Task: structure prediction
Amino acid sequence: QVQLVESGGGLVQTGGSLTLSCVVSTRAFRSQNIGWLRQAPGKEREFVAAVSWAGGSTYYGDSAKGRFTISRDNAKNTVHLQMNNLKPEDTAIYYCAAASYPLIKGMESARNFESWGQGTQVTVSS
Result:
């Protein structure tokens, strides 16, 4: 059983930064690919970023490229999402999720992930 707990969401102005954190409780943490996805009201869940179990591969959705950075600390079972230059369209609930199968760049989606956290709200004011 994989449990994921997100933190770090909040209210920020346009152009600001936030760092989200996800603590993953599982003995199999080091075998999990961990990702961040987001969902805005009335929209489908969107892939944001992911990192492979060994940390050697990172994956980014188009909205995150150049602004967001994902990293993981296997010693602390934690994954971070550093978000810079935030825009109002980044407003959403951000979910941390785990995938036990390899991800394919360019084909990442919510369907790849089997376990989910409760989400953390990110609001970017204009």
Remarks:
- The longest strand covers residues 18-25.
- The CA atoms of residues 24 and 122 lie 20 Å apart.
